[in-house]
Every structure is written in structure tokens, then in C-alpha cells.
Design goal:
- The complex is a heterodimer of chains A (467) and B (278).
- Chain A contains 19 helices and 15 strands.
- With 467 residues, chain A is an alpha+beta fold.
- Chain A has two domains: 192 residues, D-Maltodextrin-Binding Protein, domain 2 (3-Layer(aba) Sandwich), CATH 3.40.190; 200 residues, D-Maltodextrin-Binding Protein, domain 2 (3-Layer(aba) Sandwich), CATH 3.40.190.
- Chain A has a four-stranded mixed β-sheet with strand order 2-1-3-12. In chain A, strands 10-5-11 form a three-stranded antiparallel β-sheet.
- In chain A, helix 16 packs parallel to helix 17 and helix 17 runs antiparallel to helix 18.
- The radius of gyration of chain A is 26 Å and the shape is globular.
- The termini of chain A are far apart.
- Chain B is mainly α and 278 residues long.
- Chain B has a domain of 167 residues: MetI-like (MetI-like fold), CATH 1.10.3720.
- Chain B is 73% helix and 0% strand.
- Classes of the chains: A alpha+beta (467), B mainly alpha (278).
- Chains A and B meet through helix 1, helix 2, strand 2, helix 3 and helix 10 of A and helix 4, helix 6, helix 10, helix 12 and helix 13 of B.
- Chain A: It comes from Kribbella kalugense.
- Chain A: Keywords: Signal, Transport.
- Chain A: This is ABC-type glycerol-3-phosphate transport system substrate-binding protein.
């Protein structure tokens, strides 16, 4: 070509050098930072993976370090931390599908049922009851073996749960002359609660300046169970929530939105709470880190609605995939991460209430500037008068139908945005769940049949929960 | 009278353009501003653009949080992107030359087959590809992010082939008479005349690879191999979002894209006009 060519040798050389420089720069940057550490020779490697933000991931690293020191080094087991980003389970599910999941995987509790019935994860009942390596279950909260059980069988372990409670603004309470309850054993009655919500709300005409309460739609489950109802009737062949008391309780709760005592669900609660414009908000433990330092807050139980005060806790849980390289080592690693040293790390971070009771009651969990009543969180894993504080919500396909019909989706959103009457909400939800029950021919034995069909039950006669 | 109307018309045009520009630039300004705000200041009842107080804490946390090596993520993204651009330009240009200039039996059918592969949704390929990489021991390496995007890029081959077709064949014929080989024609005639198309493909590849989230998410599990989009996803969970560090990371991540856009703006617009893809 001529000297006017766009691709002279010189230009090609310049472009090539430019790209090469960028590549070298990239490689140099890529070389920054630490390198992954595998297990030393002669040790067994157990990979651990979980989603979570950097703060949570740091806590996991610290828990692993504590567990190593407490017992795993002695067993020559090395946990290799493999963090997974954010809120997406796509990669984790793909790993399960292709058999490349980590040896110890922390997942959404809602997914355990599917993974178990599809034969992807190990049944843990036998290992948990092993006299030499198993758990001393008397040391753990009752929900440790029931929260994420699949038809009563253990396919996962939940070392801690994020307790839901009412966060309240102490200054607004003091200004209104109110004293919050400090235990699930002595919660407010609905009438006390109702009076407090109305007293705390400040209105200017039709406009609300300060809301007394904010809640998410999943409180509906706690409210219904607190009215003495359950999600399913007649050996799981009929949708529950049919009692008149349930409709009455939910209607009272929703009336706060309709009458301007509580914001609709599309309103961001955190800016309101941080600005002192919201007195009570029903939230999980993780929001405490996001509350403004200027707000003096604490936590209190949800009220009786009207029979019992209950809550709906959330838990990510830990499973061992059937593809784990060494299941026994993975179980020992899991046990160590539920042990005292690792639980104390979790307690100090106030990430969740440790299932290990002595740690949940220890200063590691309770001795923090806020909340002063951390026992409200801790009690949410236990029983009051022999009844669990945490709602025992069904799982599996019918559990999913219940969640879709009553907690998520259009029906629930229309209720809490004031567009749907409570009676219609309950009727539509019950109709949808009953249709799913009918479609599947569901009853109390179907879940176990699914587990057997998926080849999930290695030990069908062993149930930790039955002991 | 006509002059007044013209001034009025152009003023209205400017006003509309300014408003649209502000709407377009608004999210970027908000991202930049939020990256310098304290956590409680990012989402507030009284939103304000200027950070008060102004803080670099989000940037410090981003690069020094003790668990996520963000600088390394930038490096990984940079070198993967550069390698894919170089490789894709080479492979697609060679393929496109074959389809545009060489006569061989089944050429059009092969090109039709190539185009048909564009119709297969990417998501359909995820599980089979993943299983193949597992068997080949390539999971948790950068191989799936570099080699397949280079060798299996139908769009790039199509784009360049269409451009090569517009170059008069008389150039090739003259070169052939002078004794030039096909490779010589490709290097000395076709490539120099195709700079706009190559630049367009390079720019589109940059944007595509630099912003790729799903590939690194699925194929990587070692934190030291993650790329920027995956690193940023750590700040957004099901339960909460750390807006400050997320905005700081997004600001850093967008700098190369902005630089590429500034220096290759005309290729962006040409890419849109050539491909119909925004």
C-alpha cells in the first residue's frame, strides 16, 4: 500500500505495543492481592462457599480460622474459603447440577427441599447422631433440628438464624411515655400495641409526619399463627388460615396501612427510621448495621395477635453435596463451624443468633452498645410456654405455593398496599394453595415419597428430630 | 420575523437537548456523588447531590476490605478484555475474509449455518458448556472467558464479512496479477481498508467483555480470579445493598469504558449504524 495507508507498519507496531502495554498492565494488576491457599500435604481439603457481602465474607473467613484453631487443625482438615457474589444463586445451582458445588455449601433455606428431593445433598441424620463425631443436640436451640428439616429429616445444618423483631426508636418511645417489652415471654397484647401505634403516629391532617409502625408482608404468617391458626389443615390436604380470628387479626394489622399509621410497602423504611420519622419497623438482624448512628434504637417482640406473639426468622443453611470429595471431613468441618469458637465470631458480628445456646446467651452476643435487649433476638430461636416463637412454616411445593399466594406476588402486594380486602386476600390465597394441593394430590406422606423417589434417604429410619 | 422564529426554534432545540442530556447524565452524577457519601447519606429522606460530609471511605473500603482484592479484579478484567479483543479481531477477520473472498464448495451453506448459530439463545448453551469445561478441567480458570469468545464469535465474523464485501474485488485482482498471495492481500489490502469495521468490532467487544457478569460468575469460584462485575455484585445481596462501596466500584469500573468512548466515539456510532445494535 501507499504511505497514506491506515495500516502502516509503524501504526501496526504502535497499536500492537499499546495493546501489549494494556495486557501487561492488566496482568500486573491481576497479580496484585493474595493467592488462594489449598490444603498442606497430608491434609484433607474441604471447600466452603457462600454468597454474602464483604462484611459477611470476612466473618466467614474469621469463623473458619476459629474453627481451624479449635479442632480442625488437629484433624488435619483444611477449609478452603470460596466466596460467591451477591444475591444470585444461578452459579450455585449450576454447580449442583454439574456436580461441582463446594464440599460445604451455604444456601438459601428455601432450596434445601428441592435439592434433597432431587438427591443432590446428603442426609445428615446418621452423622449427626454418631456418638464420636456427632452433635450434642442438648447444647443447641430447639430450632437447630427443625428449622430447615425436610419432612423431619436432616439435610442441612443451620448454625445461626437471623431473628426478626421490631426495631424501635427509643426517643420516640420516651417522648410518648412508652416502655417497650423486653422478652417474648411478656410481649404486648394487641390492645397495648394498637394504642402504642396510634400514640406514636403523628399526623397533620391527612398527611402522616411520623409513622407508628412499618412491617413487611411476611408478618402475616406470624400474625396468623399468633391467632391460633396454621398454614395447612387435615394432614396437609387443605390450606389453612381459614379461622375467623385470623381474618380479624390480619385485618387489624392491615388497617394501619389503610389509615395512615403505617406506610405502604413501596415506601423505603430505612430513610424514615434514620430520620426519626418511623417509630417501629419489623426487620431482620442485618439492618442494624445500616441504621444511622444518630438513632437510639433497640428491639422488642411482635405483639400477641391475639393469642401468641410469634415471629418468622430467616436462615441460610449449610449442606453437604453428594459430590463432596470427603463427606466425613465435610461434616467435621460443618460441626466445627457450629462450634463454640466459630459461633462466637458470628455472635460478635451479630450476624445471626448462634444456635449454640451458651454462645447466644454469652456476652459475645449480648454485650453490644445496641441493642440492649439482644435476648429478644436470642429468644426468637426458642420456645415460650412450650411453643416455638418461630413460625413453623411448611416447605416443599406446597410451602412454595403458600409463600407465592400469601407472602409474595400480587395477592400479598395488593393487600398491603390497601387495594384488596383481607377477606378477598385470604380467599384468593386459599383457592390458589388448594388448587396446588389438588393438582399434586398432596397429603402428609407425599413429601417422604418424593424423598424416596429422588434417592435421598440413605437412612429412612433415622430422624434426629424424632429424638 | 423569520430570524426571531429561527432563534426561538434553536433555543427550544437547545433546551430540549440540555434537558435530555441532564436526564441521561443524572444517574452517572448520582453514582459519582454517592461514591463520596457516608452510608446514611446515600439514601436519605432529603436527597442531595453534593456529598456532605465528603468522604473517600468507600474507595478505601473497596480496595482495603480484607477479603476482596478489587485492584486484582480490575487487572483480571483488563487482561481478559485485551486478550479477547486481540484474538477476536484476528480470528473473525480471517474467517470473514474466507467467506467474503474465497470461492469454495459449500461456502454459502457454511455461512448460513454460521448465521443460524446466532439464533441459539446463549442460556441454552450454559449447562452443556459448563459440563464440557468441567470434564476438561477448565472450571475456575480464565479459559472459558477468553478462548470461546475468541473462536466462537459469529457476530464478529458476520460484521467483518459484510464490510469486506463492500471493498472492490478489483484491488484483489490487481494484487493477484502482481503475484500476491491471499494472506498478502488480506494483510496488505483488506485489513488496512477495514480499519473502521475492525475498530467498531474492537469497541463493541470491549464493552461486551468488560461488562460480562454471567460468564465469570458461573465459571469462576476462586476470589483471586474474579472480574470487576462479579466483584461489584458482592456489595448487593438479597437482604441489603452497600451503596457507597458499590458506587465507588462502579465509578472505577466505568472509567475505561468512558475513556474508550471518548477516544472511539465515532466507532460507537458507526457500530450502531453498521449493526443496528445499541
Amino acid at each position: 500500500m501507499t504511505s497514506g495507508s491506515l495500516f502502516t507498519r509503524r501504526r501496526l507496531l504502535q497499536s500492537g505495543l499499546g495493546l501489549a502495554a494494556a495486557g501487561v498492565a492488566g496482568t500486573s494488576l491481576a497479580a496484585c492481592g493474595g493467592s488462594s491457599s489449598g490444603a498442606p500435604a497430608g491434609w484433607t481439603e474441604v471447600t466452603f462457599s457462600s454468597v454474602g457481602d464483604p462484611t459477611t465474607q470476612k466473618m466467614f473467613k474469621d469463623m473458619i480460622a476459629a474453627a481451624q484453631k479449635e479442632s480442625l487443625d488437629e484433624h488435619k482438615i483444611k477449609i478452603v474459603w470460596k466466596p460467591a457474589p451477591g444475591d444470585d444463586w444461578a452459579s450455585v445451582m449450576l454447580q449442583f447440577a454439574s456436580g461441582t458445588a463446594a464440599d460445604l455449601q451455604r444456601i438459601d433455606d428455601d432450596r434445601v427441599y428441592d435439592l434433597a428431593t432431587n438427591g443432590k445433598i446428603l442426609q445428615l441424620d446418621k452423622m449427626m447422631q454418631d456418638a464420636t463425631n456427632g452433635f450434642d443436640l442438648t447444647k443447641y436451640s430447639p430450632t437447630f433440628t427443625t428449622k430447615v428439616a425436610v419432612e423431619g429429616y436432616q439435610f442441612s445444618i443451620t448454625p445461626g438464624m437471623s431473628a426478626n423483631a421490631l426495631y424501635y426508636n427509643k426517643k420516640l418511645f420516651a417522648d410518648a411515655g412508652l416502655t417497650a417489652p423486653t422478652s417474648w415471654a411478656e410481649p404486648w397484647s394487641w390492645d397495648d400495641f394498637d394504642a402504642a401505634v396510634k400514640k406514636l403516629t403523628k399526623k397533620s391532617g391527612s398527611r402522616t409526619d411520623t409513622y407508628g409502625l412499618q412491617y413487611a408482608v411476611n408478618t402475616i404468617q406470624a400474625t396468623a399463627y399468633g391467632a391460633g391458626d396454621t398454614a395447612l389443615y387435615n394432614n396437609q390436604t387443605e390450606c389453612g388460615y381459614g379461622k375467623p380470628e385470623t381474618q380479624d387479626a390480619i385485618d387489624k394489622q392491615v388497617s394501619y396501612i389503610r389509615e395512615g399509621y403505617a406506610p405502604t410497602i413501596d415506601v423505603e423504611y430505612l430513610p424514615l427510621f434514620n430520620a426519626g420519622k418511623l417509630a417501629m419497623t419489623w426487620q431482620a438482624m442485618d439492618i442494624s448495621a445500616q441504621i444511622s448512628k444518630d438513632v437510639d434504637w433497640d428491639v422488642m417482640p411482635w405483639p400477641k395477635t391475639p393469642l401468641f406473639a410469634m415471629t418468622k426468622n430467616y436462615a441460610r443453611t449449610w449442606v453437604i453435596p453428594k459430590t463432596a470429595k470427603d463427606p466425613q471431613a465435610a461434616f467435621l468441618a460443618m460441626k466445627a463451624l457450629c462450634g463454640k469458637a466459630a459461633s462466637e465470631v458470628m455472635a460478635k458480628a451479630q450476624f445471626a443468633v448462634p444456635a449454640l445456646i451458651e454462645v447466644a446467651k454469652s456476652a459475645a452476643f449480648t454485650d453490644h452498645p445496641r441493642p440492649k435487649t439482644a435476648n429478644v433476638w436470642a429468644e426468637a430461636l426458642g420456645n415460650v410456654a412450650g411453643k416455638p416463637v418461630d413460625v413453623p412454616f411448611p416447605r416443599g411445593p406446597i410451602g412454595t405455593a403458600l409463600a407465592d399466594s400469601f407472602v409474595e406476588g400480587t395477592n400479598a402486594n395488593n393487600l398491603v398496599s390497601g387495594k384488596l380486602a383481607t377477606a378477598d386476600y385470604l380467599k384468593r390465597g386459599r383457592d390458589a394453595v388448594n388448587a396446588e394441593i389438588k393438582k399434586r394430590g398432596w397429603n402428609g406422606t407425599k413429601g417422604k415419597e418424593l424423598l424416596e423417589k429422588g434417592g435421598a434417604l440413605a437412612d429412612p429410619d433415622l430422624k434426629v428430630a424424632a429424638k | 420575523m423569520r430570524g426571531d422564529r429561527r432563534i426561538l426554534g434553536s433555543t427550544a432545540t437547545y433546551v430540549v437537548c440540555i434537558v435530555v442530556a441532564l436526564i441521561a447524565i443524572g444517574p452517572f452524577l448520582w453514582m459519582l456523588s454517592s461514591s463520596f457519601k457516608e452510608p446514611g447519606d446515600v439514601i436519605s429522606l432529603t436527597p442531595h447531590l453534593l456529598p456532605n460530609p465528603f468522604t473517600f471511605d468507600n474507595y478505601v473500603y473497596l480496595v482495603n476490605n480484607g477479603v476482596l482484592p478489587f485492584i486484582r479484579f480490575l487487572g483480571n478484567s483488563a487482561y481478559i478484555t485485551v486478550l479477547v479483543i486481540i484474538g477476536r479481531l484476528m480470528v473473525c477477520a480471517l474467517g470473514a475474509y474466507g467467506f467474503a473472498r474465497l470461492q469454495f464448495r459449500g461456502r454459502d451453506a457454511a455461512f448460513g449455518l454460521l448465521l443460524a448459530s446466532l439464533m441459539i439463545p446463549d442460556m441454552l448453551m450454559v449447562l452443556p458448556l459448563y459440563s464440557a469445561y468441567v470434564k476438561a478441567g477448565l472450571i475456575d480458570t480464565h479459559f472459558p472467558l477468553i478462548v470461546p469468545p475468541i473462536v466462537a464469535n459469529t457476530f464478529g465474523t458476520f460484521l467483518l464479512r459484510q464490510f469486506f464485501m463492500t471493498i472492490p474485488k478489483e484491488y484483489d485482482e490487481a494484487a493477484l496479477v502482481d503475484g500476491a498471495s491471499h494472506f498478502r492481500i488480506f494483510v496488505s489490502i483488506i485489513l488496512p481498508l477495514s480499519k473502521p469495521a475492525l475498530a467498531t468490532l474492537a469497541v463493541l467487544t470491549f464493552v461486551n467483555v468488560w461488562n460480562d457478569f454471567f460468564g465469570p460468575l458461573v465459571y469462576l469460584s476462586d476470589v483471586n480470579k474474579f472480574t470487576v462485575p462479579v466483584g461489584l455484585a458482592f456489595f448487593q445481596t438479597q437482604d441489603s445493598t452497600q451503596y457507597g462501596p458499590l458506587m465507588a466500584g462502579a465509578t472505577l469500573a466505568i472509567i475505561p469504558t468512558v475513556l474508550v468512548f471518548v477516544f472511539a466515539q465515532k466507532y460507537f456510532t458507526r457500530g450502531i449504524s453498521m449493526t443496528g445494535i445499541k
